[in-house]
Amino acid sequence: MAMSSTAGEAPAWRRSSRCATSECIEVARERDTVLVRDSKSPETPALRYTPEEFRAFAEGIKAGDFDDLI
């Protein structure tokens, strides 16, 4: 993730290009943290992960580890 916010700057939230509705998760980078939030409720606190945690999750998605959930 190349985009990152600095102190006092709002995070640059992104959605998947496959999001056809406004009901998706959004991710952003804030210094050394990856933020995840629900696009339907952007005012609620975001979940925070280290880049390593988020990378492991993304790799699990790519590997099909969560296919049984959908």
Task: Explain the overall architecture.
This protein is an alpha+beta fold. The protein has one domain (1-70). The chain is built from 1 helix and 3 strands; from the N terminus they run βββα. The chain has one helix spanning 51-62; strands at 25-30, 33-38, 47-49. A hairpin with a 2-residue loop joins strand 1 and strand 2. The longest helix is centred in the C-terminal third of the chain and has 12 residues, at 51-62.
Order of strands, main sheet, comes to: 1-2-3
Biggest sheet descriptor: 3 strands, antiparallel
Shape: globular
Derived from helix and strand composition plus strand pairing, the structural class reads alpha+beta
Strand content: 15-25%
Based on CA atoms alone, the radius of gyration comes out at 13 Å
Runs in which pLDDT lies below 50 for 5 or more consecutive residues are: none
Spell out the blueprint of helices and strands.
Blueprint: E1 25-30, E2 33-38, E3 47-49, H1 51-62
Antiparallel strand pairs: 1-2, 2-3
Provide a brief overview of the structure.
This protein is an alpha+beta fold.
Keyword list:
alpha+beta; 1 helix; 21% strand
